[in-house]
Structures are given as structure tokens and as C-alpha cells.
Amino acid sequence: MGPAHVVGAAVIDGSGRDPSNLDITIENGRITQLGASSAHGERLDAEGLTMTPGLIDAHVHLGLSSPIQPHFSFQISAAEIAADIFATAGATLDAGFTTVRDTGGIDGGVVTAIAKGKVRGPRVLSCGPVQCQIGGHGYYGAEWEPTELWSSHHIAGLCALSMMAGNADELRHNVREAFRRGASFLKLCVTGGVVGAHDRLTDTQFTVEEIAVAVQEAAARNTYVTVHAHNNEGIRNAVEAGVRCVEHGTSLDESTATLMAAREVALVPTFAVVEQLLHDTAGAGLAESTRDRAKGAREQMTKALAVAKHAGVRIGLGSDLIGPAQDRRGRELSLRAALETPMEALVAATQTNAEILGLSGQVGVITPGAQADLVLWNGNPLEDPELFSDPTNAVLVIQAGRIVKDLR
């Protein structure tokens, strides 16, 4: 197949530089040239549209696309759960997200099915099941249900939310099992959470020594550990153990942020899920008590973002949406744009997220040699970042050089 040329768009390349009018040449799934294109090859007229790199969401839960409580109480069939997962994967692509990092819920079969093109979806990097301590965040069985029955909620090849460990040896066993199933990185829960059944936000979970076991196993496979963490003690434990990334970081203080920056540990804040839980707790299949946990999280997370930024922490972007309502994933960029600038939000969702995912230079940027992951927007999201919130504004989505959505 010969080259294709996208001409006429205002190009925002993901680096933070101002937009420029460039023609983009694509060949064999990659960007080969920026600037005036030759007449040879197919030409795609993008006059009046704005081009960005394909967006990246560094915190998704495709496997939590069904209402959560019914999902984990055998009230929803495997067929319906699969349908929900694949619908969410397609909606993610339609919102302009060509790459995602799944931070818990899907099993390896979902990654494979999408990669083979059997269902529409973004490029997926997955941690497989989340690693949790017994009685900690990530466990949604009934209080009377023995922990050893939790794995019966897993559906092989489709979804497996979490694995429980009571000590370092069990954790080592579980992370090796996660890698066997195809995980490309690890995620641990080291504090309680907002969407929690048996834990509190102030809880710390796993010891430094236990977290270090996961870090050791990840390093043996040339990858890394990220952690779900809301309070500073849990964050510091994880950083001390050698993790590379922190999800949420809701209560982050100045000294902890300074430590993260010194150890080059990234932060992925998650604002959209807090808004989602405040406005539609029931729609996510959660008890109303979850709303109370979410109420103070938005204000704390806003402060934490400013603290992290001041300390020089690398800050990515993740939506953390759960339940069936995951079609407006770009809302995370709109929310971040209101707290920073639209350009900073876009760079976080492209170049910075690519760095966090270990895909720097491959995705998240418009530059020769990168994957041809491109989105053409109806309007300029730098001038009106609310455009990100509505997937219909992503009128053309190109993934690895193929048009996967076209509303022109």
C-alpha cells in the first residue's frame, strides 16, 4: 500500500508547541514525513479540522464495564459482561483514545481479541488482575464470603479484577501468575479507596517489604509497578519500595511530592471518576455510601495536582471510569484543562502518558517514525477544551495508519 497524506489540518503535535499547518504523510502504519507532501498517494482533506495525536488514557477499567456489584455477585452472565467490555473498548476508540493502560479488570484474552482486530478497541497495555492484600481495596465479595472463593468470580480470558495475598510469598506467587496471563506491568493497592467495600481511605496496605517483592518481580521482566494510593503514608511506602508510578495521589503533600520527584515517580490523577461517582453512583452499580467517600476527594485531588506540579513530578492523565457509562472518556481532559491549560491537559494525555507507559516516541506524538495514531477534531480543543468531552467532535480517528472512525 502506498503513502497517504493528511492535508490542511492545524496540527498540535503533543510536544506542547503551538499548532502549525503541516501535511502528514503516513506509510505502513507510521508517520514518515511532516510538511509539504508529494502528489503521489491518497490525499485526505482535513481543511478546517484540528489534528492531535491519538489520545492515551493511563487509567482505564475495561473489565468494569458492567455495574460493579451485580458483576461480582453472579447476577450478570459472562456473555453480557463480554458485550459490555467490547462496547466500552469501541467507545474508547470513538472518543479519540487509541492507546490505554488498563489498571485492573481484564484478563489477557481481551487484549488479544482487540489486538487481532476481532473487536474494535484501542491498543491495550494491561496489568491483568490487581494485586491486593486480604481484606484490602479491590475485594468486592460479601463480608461472609471466604477469601479463597474470590477467584471464582474470575472468568478465564475475559475478566479477573484482583488477586488476594496474605504475605510476601503469596504476593510473589500472584504476580508471577499475572505475568503468566500476559500482564505487561503490575498494579498494587497500597491504600484503601473511594470505591471500596471493606477498607477506608486512611488505611495503608502491604508493607514496604511486600511491595518490594512485586518491584523485584517486575524488574526481572524489565517492567514496573504502579500503585493505587490515596494517602501519603501509603505513597511513601510504595516509593521507598521502588515503584515507578502512583495512581490517584488524592492527599499528596509537599514532602511526599518532593520525594516522588527525586525518585522520578510519576503521578496519574483521576478526576473524571470522582465527577462520575458524585453524579451517578447508582449507574456504576455502587451503593450510595460511595458518594460520601467521593465528596471530599475532588477538592483534595485538585490541591494534590498543584502540589505535584510545583514539586516537578511527571503528571499523566487517567479517567478511571467504571460501570457502563464510559463513552465520555475525554471528560478527563476537559476537567484538567480547567485546572491547568488545555495544552497542558493535552500533553499529559499524549506525550507524558506515552512516557509513563514506556512508549515514548512511539505513540502520543506526531513525529516521523511514530505510530500513525491521529485524531481530527471538529473545532480547536485548545480554544474550547469541552470539545474533548463529546466523542462526536472526534470526527476522524486513525490508528496505526488505518481509519477506524470517520464522521466526515
From TrEMBL:
- Domain (Amidohydrolase-related) spans 50-404
Give the superkingdom in one word.
Bacteria
Recorded hits in Pfam families, A to Z, give: Amidohydro_1 (PF01979)
**What are the recorded GO MF terms, alphabetically?**
hydrolase activity, acting on carbon-nitrogen (but not peptide) bonds
Q: What is this protein called?
A: Amidohydrolase family protein
**Species:** Streptomyces malaysiensis subsp. samsunensis
